[in-house]
Design goal:
With 237 residues, the protein is of the alpha+beta class. It has one domain: Beta Polymerase, domain 2 (2-Layer Sandwich). Helix content is 49%, strand content 20%. It has a five-stranded mixed beta sheet with strand order 1-2-5-4-3. Strand 4 and strand 5 form a beta hairpin. The longest helix is centred in the N-terminal third of the chain and has 39 residues. The chain is flat.
């Protein structure tokens, strides 16, 4: 049930936003063109969120296990899209935006255990209207900061009248522990104006490794005491 529709970024509001006031014509055109297709990203986000909820529900019914703890989703703001394109020194045109910015529609999926992440991805890969475009496994190979997550971009097939469009949705998969680390590390970095000492950075990296070991150990206890959702004890109804 839709309780509340979020405010849409309509073209009529275009001239009222501060962002656009000082923009050159090229960038204004880019944003206008983007706003014309923004709804595609919202549809793709909704489709992907439904798929994830359905998978969680399926696992609950068949394996008595909910792999997903919770999810958050967002559509990137036009400000943030421009900031990213400028930071990466992209040409400021619509074609470049469509080709290079994959994270306009984004979902963060927080899982209980590390294995849940890989098993959900396996299940998503079996769906014929999804294809993987980019996969970055920062769980196996964390970033130098200690950041862990698995980022994956799926192209989602959407049906519009007689046309099928593929729209990218970025999913960041994390365990509860990885999410705790990423939220606090982000805040600490922001609060320090990106000026953490080498010792503090090193400590944060070590805490990430400690949390990863805790994740593995908690998962071991879980596996020892259950028949995980990839086998056995299936209750087909
Ligand atoms: P963006 O332009 O920032 O989206 O970068 P990207 O598209 O190259 O993706 P990348 O794989 O670097 O991941 C970007 C996102 O991952 C960020 O928006 C953060 O949410 C998260 N992230 C990446 N590195 C870190 C980190 O060191 N700490 C924290 N807290 N989050 C991070
Ligand atoms: Mg991103």
């Amino acid at each position: 049930m839709i309780l509340q529709k979020t405010e849409k970024f309509t073209l009529s509001r275009l001239n009222n936003i501060d962002l656009l006031k000082d923009l050159d014509e090229e960038t204004k055109k880019l944003i206008t063109q983007y706003l014309n297709v923004e709804s595609e990203y919202r549809y793709a986000l909704r489709e992907m969120s439904a798929k994830l909820e359905n998978l969680d529900d399926y696992c609950q019914r068949h394996f008595d296990h909910n792999p997903i703890h919770h999810m958050e989703s967002r559509i990137k703001t036009p400000e943030s899209i421009l900031e990213k394109m400028q930071r990466r020194e992209y040409d400021m045109d619509f074609k470049t935006l469509r080709k290079n910015v994959y994270d306009i529609a984004g979902i963060r999926v927080i899982c209980n255990y590390i294995n849940d992440i890989y098993q959900i991805i396996n299940l998503l890969c079996q769906q014929r209207d999804l294809s993987i475009q980019v996969k970055k496994d920062y769980i196996v190979a964390p970033k130098p900061t200690g950041y862990r997550s698995l980022h994956i971009v799926f192209d989602v097939e959407l049906y519009f009248n007689n046309e099928i469009k593929k729209v990218p949705v970025e999913i960041q998969f994390r365990t509860i522990a990885m999410d705790m680390w990423a939220s606090l590390e982000h805040e600490l970095r922001y609060k320090s104006n990106n000026n953490l000492s080498e010792e503090e950075k090193n400590n944060l990296k070590n805490y990430s490794d400690t949390l990863y070991n805790i994740d593995l150990n908690m998962q071991r206890i879980y596996i020892n005491n259950t028949v995980g959702f990839d086998g056995g004890n299936r209750d087909d109804d």
